[in-house]
Design brief:
This protein is an alpha+beta fold. Strands 1, 2, 3, 4, 5, 6, 7, 8 and 18 form a 9-stranded mixed sheet that branches. Strands 9, 10, 11, 12, 13, 14, 15, 16 and 17 form a 9-stranded mixed sheet that branches. The structure holds pyridoxal-5'-phosphate (PLP). Pyridoxal-5'-phosphate binds next to α5 and β15.
């Protein structure tokens, strides 16, 4: 598949990486491809980063027929650039696409698009420790039609932005609030799909929690409001009595995270007993009270591993591991980031070189 490349004639000045706000500065180029019913995905191209023209009636603007992905390119000490498990993102986007009635992007074009874009904008992959280039592929429905059905035309776009060190002061355990009223996803809904609508639905509860000084909301299931699902836009894991426990993906309301999958594989490799199952909020609070809850952390591409130091439920505060980062949490962070930046060997074949 040939990707036509139109280089920018006005390369942008790169912002200083130290203290750069997440998702604000974008690199020089973007990838675009169109879908037209009857023709399939056509016209793959890389062009200078810039606005996309849309009809005000474009379906995505009214009915949120949109899906996205998030992954990163990492620069190794030798100056090489590599991706972490990109085919997992590509496969997940195909599952999101099916749920949102969006035609899937052929996998080979998708990976070629990411690699070509990152290679072209390789100077945008920062080299300071713990920095990376965030890659955001997304698909929007573009039919100029205010009517509820699946669009017949789409745009697939990939943009990238340099991101700084997530933890400039070291891993810092966060405070989270268990959300007892609002829910993010329901059984039978779009929880497993990475779609913008899920995020729109999560804003209200998150804003209220942030105003109260919490960094994230711990979501409960949408049916009984009893079982733990996710923390903010991360998956969540607990170490209870020496075992690793995490919500299962069975009900379809939890996003199947790639950091989650990688963490579980490592934990099993290290000999931990891992349980993917329902965890009720009562079980969690009881474990916190008895001291059986040894560690808690979130997993996701942006922060990789995010230690949880305190949970608040029904007005009561529960401190985990004295608010300190736990041993397993730290080991997961060190191992996954070590593989991503090429500091330690990758025995799993997770890393894919770009250039
Ligand atoms: C993207 C995402 C995650 C984390 O997935 P990773 O593949 O690990 O980045 C978890 N929960 C939600 C809701 C997400 O959108």
């Amino acid at each position: 598949m040939d990707i036509a490349i139109t280089r920018t004639t006005a390369p942008k000045q790169k912002p200083a990486i130290e203290g750069i706000p997440f998702g604000t500065y974008f690199s020089d180029h973007m990838f675009l491809m169109n879908y037209v019913k009857g023709q399939g995905w056509i016209n793959p191209r890389i062009v200078p980063y810039g606005p996309i023209e849309l009809e005000p009636s474009a379906m995505v603007l009214h009915y949120a027929q949109e899906i996205f992905e998030g992954l990163k390119a990492y620069r190794t000490a030798e100056g090489k650039i590599q991706l972490f498990r990109p085919t997992e993102n590509i496969a997940r986007m195909a599952r999101s696409a099916e749920k949102l009635c969006i035609p899937p992007v052929p996998e080979d074009i998708y990976l070629q698009a990411i690699k070509t874009l990152v290679e072209l904008d390789q100077d945008w992959v920062p080299s300071a420790p713990d920095t990376s280039l965030y890659i955001r592929p997304f698909i929007i429905a573009t039919d100029p039609h205010v009517g509820v059905h699946a669009s017949h035309t789409y745009i697939f776009c990939i943009i990238t932005c340099p991101v700084g060190c997530y933890y400039p002061e070291g891993l810092n355990p966060v405070r989270i609030a268990i959300e007892g009223r609002e829910v993010r996803a329901v059984r039978g809904g779009t929880g497993f799909a990475k779609c913008g609508g899920n995020y729109a639905a999560s804003l209200h509860a998150s804003e209220i929690a942030e105003a109260k000084g919490f960094s994230q909301v711990l979501w409960l299931d949408g049916v009984e409001q009893k079982y733990i699902e996710e923390v903010g836009s991360m998956n969540v894991m607990f170490k209870i009595d020496g075992k690793i426990v995490t919500p299962s993906l069975e009900k379809g309301s939890v996003l199947p995270g790639i950091t989650r999958k990688s963490s579980l594989q490592l934990l099993k490799e290290w000999g931990y007993e891992v349980e993917e199952r329902d965890i009720s909020v009562d079980e969690l609070i009881a474990a916190a009270g008895s001291g059986a809850l040894e560690e808690a952390w979130g997993t996701g591409t942006a922060a990789v591993i995010s230690p949880i130091g305190e949970i608040v439920y029904a007005g009561e505060e529960h401190t985990i591991n004295n608010g300190q980062i736990g041993e397993v949490t730290q080991k997961l962070y060190d191992t996954i980031t070590g593989i991503q930046w090429g500091k330690i060997d990758d025995p799993f074949g997770w890393v894919v070189p770009v250039c």
